[in-house]
Amino acid sequence: MKEAKVYVNGRLLGFHPDPKKLVEEFRKRRRSGQIPYTVSITYYENTNEVYIYTDAGRLSRPLIVVKNGKPLLTKTHLKMLKEGKLTWEQLVKQGVIEYLDPEEEENAYIATSEEELTPEHTHLEIHPAVVLGFGVNLIPWPEKNLTTRLLHGSKMGDQGLGLYASNFRIRTDTMSYVLYYPQKPLVKTKVFKYAHLDHRPYGQNIVVAVMPLEGYNMTDAIIMNKDSIERALYRAVFFRTYEAVERRYPGGQKDRFEIPDENVSGYLGEETYHALGEDGIAIPETYVRGGDALVGRTSPPRFLEDVAHFGIMEEKRRENSVLVRPDEEGYVDTVMITSDENGSKLIKIKLRQEKIPEIGDKFAARMGQKGVIGMIVPQEDMPFSPNGITPDLVFNSHAFISRMTVSFVLEALGAKAAALEGWDEVDATMGEGMEPEEFEKVLRAHGFRKTGKELLYDGKTGEEIEADIFMGPIYYMRLKHLVSQKYQARARGPVQILTRQPTEGRSREGGIRFGEMERDTLIGHGAAMTLYERLVEESDKTKILVCEVCGNIGIDDAIRKKRYCPVCGSTKVHEVEVSYAFKLLLDELKSLGIYPKLILKDKA
Description:
Hypothetical Protein Ta0175, Chain: A, domain 2; 4 domains
């Protein structure tokens, strides 16, 4: 047999005559603790190569070692673990548990359950759920859904509003959301319990009807019950923390917290400072809007002052207050006064704003079925069951066809059975969750159909809806993507100093960017005048003087009341309307030593 190449972290280290024996001996020593458990070894027979990896950052997961078809983890081990006489680290050192990285899994034959074990198996899964990550394990019956939906669901799980910390009142997070009435789900996995999410849940159990309704829940939109919202369903509070420091400057000067005086340079007007107390700090529970001052602050001038009348040096301070963001409003919740690491006075102010669900807010079920509110309908216009049950949310049935989120249907059945029977919870852990047959028995016993479908009446006409509607409780999350913090609109507003074009971004009171691709669309439609309006008229239109003789930009000398060309001296200069960005381009070309020439012609 040819000697096998041995690589360590991708570099060829040498050759070995018996690679199988090398790997066997290596693993024996690793299991006895002589070699660190994080080191992996793999032998590829087809290429006759051994790979050893010791580098950091590799993903590895624990598995139970199997010998002769029997797991090394025994009931004695489990008993000692429960009694605290044995630790996880000791199990790893004893070689009962082994960490494998993706490379070494190539040499492993892993069984998912003890019943499957054969003498050929090398390892056993601790639990089927360990195959998946933490986020996916919070989804009920994850094995019944498509992988893409599981990824969506796990990503949205940490965006759900809930009780993120019990001490949120005294924390100073930059931004935070708290749901008023978070609930623990009726259907949940064991991981939910182990992660203590019962104490800090991130959603609410609501009655969901699956049906299209007058087109307001087309594609992924959802319809919400107005009365449910008025009963505080998914109502949340948003906190934003503002900071202000009394900075010290060279020369002994420093900032001052105070209500700025009218003589201060850049004074913003009396209305701006309405929320401030005598010390220049906002009074708690005062309502403030965008642009209002939260901390009145004045700073020393940037440059030394001129001598004023009678030869007295007069300090002209400048306005430097902390203002509420232009797109925010709310109540001053908490004011904290402390000092920073330099000993300067530091003020932190928390602004509180109530967030009531509105059209455009985003919601999602745990299995990745997300949507925004398309319409909020009064309860009397919503469909209702013979028992008088009105859904809190109407979800479009067309969203199932391609997504195939079976666990959505199972959760509705399980939660319905739990609500009727008074179960505390329904186990939906991967590989060992409750079976649908158990829910069917409960539903039948309480006079419901085993499918979860119900007869509903139209709220507007009172007539029976011809189709049977699937309805049941689902754990829905309100996500942090609120329309009130995303919508953008602008007519007039600030412009950039350099280009004279409107600012970009919501925080700078800007509009939405009309980019190259949007421009191409208008060109393709032949809408030249619309393009001109967007990119010139509504943007950075300016008038420049152009010399008829040499094509250079002219000068308008207002003092001498003369218009002329600075290059050739000609007075034959004409006003031309251009984009200011174009004028800027000409200036930049000149700075590079390039002579741009504009040739004028009369309009036809």
